[in-house]
User: Which sequence fits this backbone?
């Protein structure tokens, strides 16, 4: 009697996933902090956002490296397209995040303003979408039949 | 990825405005170009190097010597009645690093300063034979806390530490004071982002004026910590009671009494990160009750959009200062010429020590300027008095802080906190007549 086991796994390695969790959580933190700052003009919120973005960028750097390597390594795998979209999102997340880190180094209201808020929204969206793709379970060719 | 990032950065940096080539940067009505906030502030830190036997440059007819060297961050100076010179040495401030920027910018700016530890003392120098080299040097007062401003009234020397104003009894000729100072009043000391407490006594000696710098560039630590900051205090010498004399005066780094009128004047460092030609540092008479705009507006009522919530009620009270010295020159020293001053073009007016810029692609300051006065008011463009602190365009040999005109010997002393030297400029020959 033959049984078929379909192995499903996320797109990325668990450690890669843990690293990705940092930008997802911290860019979101920065966005919420920015909103709080723009609503209250309470300076501590922009300080929070500034550190959150810096922390997010540390995680993002490692994620970017890993995403590039795994795309190359899996260039013939069926999930290549997902991996490519994932990498593009990570690149965009890093770019928006880096510019936003500088934006948040300006003083007082200029540390956020419209530009800072927009960059926070974009980097958060990229992080969330990248996470959605990366953590989604998908069937792989490693399904085994006997 | 790199290309994309570079493109993004280039696009954002392209919004940087060009500086006005022919702009009027000094004087009573400086051109104020539009705000140019960039993603990363434009910075240039001059690379420190030694003097290697070279000297600062003085005009023809003057000579300069190193009065004494090997100080521990010399800042302001005070002339005593017998000709002795006091030099306050120290480095202060305990501002916590609140943002990643504070860590990075603090490191970058530290590259342009001396690595010597602040002395927390006052050194006495005596050059009785006026040969330009001090023959006597003593530790006059030790155990101070980042001393900066000093004043003499009668038989009392006042020292503005970064946290308190102290009083010391003094007898003429004394070369050391060992008894502890008596606290006249505490001074605003929380954070001390701008820690220097400048000091001057009123012409009649009854009042002491203390300049207290802001606790941030432009309110980015929150306005709660700016209580009693960016102000000049007037302190009653006898009782120690104080009142706020002027407000919104971002960082009044040196105070002095104009000899003809007895009015209080200050050099003030203005805000950064609005472009290479904003905001001019200034020299101004300090008017009783005046609001000079910080942080809400600059040079009168030009609103700074970085400060929220806005305060139009305060902005409409803001007055413009008297005289622009140039943006980012970091004026730290002020001393008025008296009774013919240094002669020639430097007879009547104010010597201004300019520590030099960081927030500018082309370095500014790094010299001692002279602002000519007439009838107790600035009259004409500033002139270079002592230059040569820069070597080429990227290297710096010294950074002027305090300046001190000594009428008795017709000399100007300059404290240099990069090479840790006090320079002495004297007249040696005929000098060219005043331009005006």
Assistant:
């Amino acid at each position: 009697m033959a049984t078929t086991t379909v192995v499903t796994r996320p797109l990325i390695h668990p450690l890669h996933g843990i690293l990705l969790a940092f930008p997802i959580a911290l860019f979101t933190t920065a966005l919420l902090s920015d909103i709080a700052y723009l609503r209250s003009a309470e300076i501590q919120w922009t300080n929070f956002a500034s550190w959150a973005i810096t922390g997010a960028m540390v995680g993002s750097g490692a994620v970017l490296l890993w995403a590039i390597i795994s795309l190359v390594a899996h260039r013939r795998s069926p999930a290549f397209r997902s991996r490519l979209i994932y990498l593009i999102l990570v690149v965009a997340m890093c770019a928006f995040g880096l510019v936003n880190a500088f934006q948040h180094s300006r003083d007082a209201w200029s540390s956020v303003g419209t530009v800072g808020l927009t960059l926070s929204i974009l980097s958060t969206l990229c992080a969330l979408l990248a996470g959605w793709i990366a953590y989604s379970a998908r069937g792989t060719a490693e399904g085994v039949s006997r | 990825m790199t290309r994309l990032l570079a493109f993004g950065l280039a696009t954002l940096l392209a919004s940087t405005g060009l500086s006005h080539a022919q702009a009027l940067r000094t004087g009573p009505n400086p051109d104020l170009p539009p705000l140019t906030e960039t993603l990363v502030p434009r910075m240039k830190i001059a690379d420190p190097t030694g003097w290697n036997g070279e000297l600062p440059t003085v005009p023809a007819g003057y000579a300069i010597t190193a009065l004494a060297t090997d100080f521990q961050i010399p800042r302001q100076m005070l002339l005593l009645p017998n000709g002795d010179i006091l030099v306050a040495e120290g480095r202060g401030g305990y501002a916590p690093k609140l943002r990643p920027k504070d860590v990075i910018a603090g490191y970058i700016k530290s590259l342009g300063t001396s690595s010597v530890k602040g002395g927390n003392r006052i050194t006495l120098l005596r050059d009785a034979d006026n040969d330009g080299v001090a023959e006597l040097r003593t530790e006059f007062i030790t155990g101070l806390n980042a001393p900066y401003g000093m004043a003499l009234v009668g038989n009392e020397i006042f020292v503005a530490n970064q946290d308190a104003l102290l009083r010391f009894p003094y007898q003429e000729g004394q070369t050391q004071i060992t008894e502890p100072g008596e606290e006249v009043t505490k001074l605003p000391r929380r954070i001390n982002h701008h820690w220097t407490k400048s000091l001057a006594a009123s012409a009649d000696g009854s009042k002491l004026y203390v300049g207290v710098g802001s606790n941030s560039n432009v309110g980015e630590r929150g306005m709660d910590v700016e209580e009693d900051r960016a102000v000049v205090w007037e302190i009653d010498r006898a009782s120690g009671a104080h009142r706020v004399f002027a407000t919104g005066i971002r960082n009044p780094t040196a105070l002095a009494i104009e000899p003809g009128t007895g009015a209080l004047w200050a050099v003030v460092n203005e805000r950064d990160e609005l472009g290479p030609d904003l905001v001019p540092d200034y020299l101004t008479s300090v008017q009783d009750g005046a609001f000079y705009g910080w942080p809400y507006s600059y040079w009168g009522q030009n609103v700074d959009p970085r400060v929220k919530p806005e305060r139009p009620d305060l902005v409409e009270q803001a007055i413009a200062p008297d005289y622009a010295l140039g943006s980012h020159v970091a004026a730290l020293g002020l001393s008025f010429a008296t009774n013919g001053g240094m002669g020639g073009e430097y007879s009547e007016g104010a010597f201004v020590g300019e520590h030099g810029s960081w927030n500018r692609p082309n370095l500014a300051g790094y010299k001692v300027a002279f602002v000519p006065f007439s009838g107790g008011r600035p009259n004409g463009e500033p002139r270079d008095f002592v230059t040569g602190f820069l070597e080429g365009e990227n290297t710096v040999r010294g950074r002027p802080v305090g300046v001190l005109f000594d009428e008795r010997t017709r000399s100007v002393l300059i404290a240099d906190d990069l090479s840790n030297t006090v320079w002495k400029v004297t007249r040696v020959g005929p000098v060219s007549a005043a331009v005006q």
